Amino acid sequence: MSLTKIVSATCIVLGAALASGVVWAVDVVEADAASAWARPMLLGAHRGGKGEWPENTVLAFSEAATQYPDILLEGDLQLSKDGVVVVIHDRTVDRTTNGSGTVQELTLAQLKALDAGYHFSSDGGKTYPYRGTGITIPTLDEILQAMPKNRALFELKDGEGLVAKVVPLLRKHGAADRILIASFKPELMAAMREQMPEIATCFDRGGALALLSALRTGDWSAYEPTARMLSLPKRYIVQFKLTAEEFRKMQEKGVLIQVHTLNTPEEMDHFRAMGVDSILTDYPALLARCLTARNNQLEPRIKR
Ligand code: G3P
Ligand code: CA
Q1: Domains delineated in the chain
Q2: Which residues, in sequence order, are bridge partners of residue 181?
Q3: Is pLDDT above 70 for 18?
Q4: Of 138, 239, 244, 268, which cross-links 274 as Cys (Cβ 3.0–4.6 Å)?
Q5: Beta-strand relationship, 85-87 and 72-79
Q6: Helix or strand or coil: residue 24?
Q7: Which residue puts its alpha carbon closest to atom 2 of ligand 1?
């Protein structure tokens, strides 16, 4: 297949991927040395590190933030019925709590009454160490308090008026310069850019397509990225045959590359060797060990 056909096919599939929200890139571009995004990251905690702690909870975010100050924390935002920004991935509370129902149909008080540690088990269901220990679905306000200096990537999941509620919280915590915002909903990203132009946000679909197209068939020397990070599920890196050399070319333009979600030492080593800037994992301790073994200097501050 010719390169043109490969790029064309890639763009079609990538377009579909973007439409489903699985490929992200974060706006920016002009990074200076003091930028939070100029510091090495590599270690990223998917939903706060959901293999080690109950996902998207204050416990997960504060443990990960304390143990690995340079980590990139990732979490998901929605609105409760009464308009409070809460951190939870699924549309319903059923999988992660002892309750049932959709997040948007439950008030904050109803959400807070649920046990968000109920279903967590790290031994295949033999034990549930966090049941009944008071772990709740957190508000974004609580999560930001738990990570006062750390970097995070928040995904806007759903909820009318979500952006208008997120923006003042980020400003209240002075977090704009260390938070990335992503969403699979273009209208939420547009609202975010309009209401908080100073924050790093996701590329629109066309921007990511333009990046790949310029890289493979366009005038790459003239291309100016509108993003600092391209975040890809590992399967798309394989499917689109993205190479270390292509990553390097993007990075030369100031684009950071993130891959998710990696949970085995083999895939962590593989993508680290490709030169990605950030890896999201459910198991930060495992990733930290892999990176430390490769001299990436990410020993946890608190030894376990
Ligand atoms: O950052 C990418 C990652 O968050 C996508 O996975 O399904 O956990 O939102 P998901
Ligand atoms: Ca997410």
Answers
A1: 3-293 (3.20.20.190)
A2: 154, 201
A3: no
A4: 244
A5: antiparallel
A6: strand
A7: 260
